[in-house]
Amino acid sequence: MFEFTTRAVQMGQSADPVTGAIVPPITLASTFLLDGVDTPRAGYDYSRSGNPTRDAYQVALSDLESGGEAVAYPSGMSAEDAVIRVLTRPGDTVLYGHDGYGGTGRLFTWVLPAEGKQARRIDTTQADTIRAGLAETGARVLWLETPSNPLLEVSDIAVAAELAHEAGAYLVVDNTFATPVFQRPLELGADVVVHSTTKFVGGHSDLIGGAAIFADGLELPQPGLSGSSSVADEARWWQNATGAVPGSFDCWLAARGLRTLPVRVKQMAASAQTIAESLVEIPEIVQVHYPGLPTHPGHAVAAKQMTGFGAVISVELATPAIARAFAESTKLFRLAVSLGAAESLIEYPFAMTHQALAATSDAAPDKLVRLAIGLEDPVDLIEDLRQAIALAVR
Ligand SMILES: Cc1ncc(COP(=O)(O)O)c(C=O)c1O
Q1: I need a labelling partner for 43 at 20 to 30 A (CA). Which of 155, 161, 186, 393 fits?
Q2: Same structural domain, 95 and 206
């Protein structure tokens, strides 16, 4: 097998057999010519059920995450919703971290109960709280986001996998922040990986997408609606039944993103490390959250399970007003939600990405600002942050 970076460039990328085009064409067709009523020419009949551009992208994603199979979705949230639907039944409980993306919190807090399921937040950075949570709830799914959004908390995937499996639960890991370049949860024992491919995979702030990658041979306790016990078969069946499919152009863009993913995220993480180290020196910044800092509580676990610490940093300021003013005072960092793209972004999670939870006890800290480091020169980015802090505290 080739090295990761080679596979990132080559997987799902064979030249077009007819024209020799090095970049595979985008199959935009919604429907396919049949040779007989039940004889599709190359396995395709209708693009909701399957599409060559989507398939090639899924092969690449699955390969890079060391999975059995991948299913692409129209957004990260749609991937999360699909995974929960496939793995749980009414009455089941999902355990998830007390820090995590606000949209995941909204899905688990309001949508799950509306479907007769429960979700409970626990501290997933501690083995004891995971063990106790699993024992108390008999949860069907343990859901980790590591590093987490926005506090960059780190949970030990191998430990969580062991505890989940002992308790008869599935372990799902949201690998959006780490990407398969830095962390491959399925190799550490997780059952399912989910992504918002909107972020690093796409990498250019020009698509919304999601994906679920299933461990090879992952089974349900009994056959699902598809008649199969394979989780991947069931996920594909649900996708066709509910229609949560991404468009071909978005799949093509995301597949293009995969080819440069290693080089982009390594550069971004190197810049993030430099920037985090320099932010620590700024007296107006109360705390810097970045797993690459040796002072970060999750640094040792991150160093064990990741080969890089990612490109997201969050910082705490003295007051909510200063935090807001800081987020509104940068010139290079653009004030926008999302992350993982070429351009650096800054945001105020309490009122932006985590706004859905603002009125609840799960609200993001109101003195926190999140930085998504892009591909600009870190010297310029540091200078921009310094001038913004100076303006914010004036
Ligand atoms: C960690 C994480 N997971 C999932 C999502 C949801 O993805 P999407 O916005 O593509 O639906 C996000 C979005 O910010 C995220 O940060």
Answers
A1: 186
A2: yes
